[in-house]
Amino acid sequence: MPGPSTPAAEERAEEVLPDGPGRRPRLIRDLSLSAVLAGVVAVVVSYSGPLVIVLAAARAGHLDAAQTDSWIWAVSIGSGLTCIALSLRTRMPVITAWSTPGAALLVTSIGSYAYDEVIGAFVVSGAVIALIGLTGIFGRLMRLVPGAVVSAMLAGILFSFGTGVFTALEGTPVIAGSVLVAYLLGRRWLPRYAVLVALVVGVLCSAAASRLHVRLDHVGLVQPVFTTPAFSVASLVGIAVPLTLATLASQNAPGVAVLSASGYRPDDRLLVGSTGLVSAALAPFGSHAVNLAAITAAICTGPEAHRDPRRRYVAGVACGAVYLLVGAFGSTLVAFFAGLPKELVAALAGVALFGALAAGLTGAVREDKDREAALITFLATASGVTLFGIGSAFWGLVLGVAAHVALNGRLRRGAVPSPADRPTRRPVS
Fold this sequence. Notes:
- By secondary structure, the chain is an all-alpha fold.
- It has helices at 7-16, 26-30, 33-48, 51-60, 65-90, 100-109, 115-134, 137-142, 147-171, 173-189, 194-208, 233-261, 268-282, 295-301, 313-329, 331-338, 342-352, 354-364, 371-383, 392-408; strands at 96-98, 290-292.
- The protein has a two-stranded antiparallel sheet.
- α7 (115-134) packs across α12, α9 packs across α12 (233-261) and α9 crosses α19 (371-383).
- The longest helix has 29 residues, at 233-261.
- The two termini are 20 Å apart.
């Protein structure tokens, strides 16, 4: 009698049984409600928070309604396409989004330039990011970062979301409290669906408290607006350079680190290069930057998405599909997400990130010799400090690496291996 199958045996079996007429496509075989829900929650968090900064930048640039809708369409479609394509290509939960630090920079600078020059700066920024990614420069730098520092940075990024569950209790104890209690009960009795239980209970309590203000008015597809790029030295220096640095340091670096801290081996050339190319291609329609996500990625890379890491890529596909749906309808569906209570979104995001936060803290303190450097990284990242337009995640990495070198005298191999380091698998006869 054959013995029980092991994860390794199951993985080999999947490799030697390709999709065909008598076999369901792999995506359908790997489909799970928990992974799909993780992707949906990631989208809810994205549109309920970071998109507000994009809308503020559009107002600062005096964009009309059509241009604003086109901007939302471009970043949403770009994020959706890259989520789906990269997740299917790599079988990892690759979550992409628009550059929140980049949008924050634009709030104070976009109004100083003609809109076609702003678009030209977006094109150049995307092309430069693609070049840096495809040449491997970005990956070589990331591989110098010690694993404990990467884990500490992840924990620092997620720290405010974890505490957000409890700060939300102050404003609406019923809504936030119901989400927390429902999540804990779900973890006890239905661990794979704990976030779903928390979402359903939170929405019901919000409705009972008359805090749901979602509505769908004037539903219609977005008509993207193409703007011919113009190039000027002033816009390249004032927008393209800081946007490129902010996107690479504050978004792509943490994005690669989140995947690595979750046990994956991301191909930095493929991921950063692809998002840069998509950014450049969609820039004439308003996209300022599409990049790897960190916070929403952590929702999809942890065990809450699926207990089997090989099946979590479904969360990336689901996230991308919802991005495409929202992007197609632009501000109409964005208004729907904006109607959700902020306390509900904060509590839901917090409980969905508990597992990733715990994993980051565990990895940060695993080895004695790395703990002080990891602590510095965690505190610097969690502080939220922004210097020269670059967020705290980057400065946490820099200070953590500097502390590691000062305490240990040298850098050891980091937590982001190159694709060439992946173990080769022998064919099964």
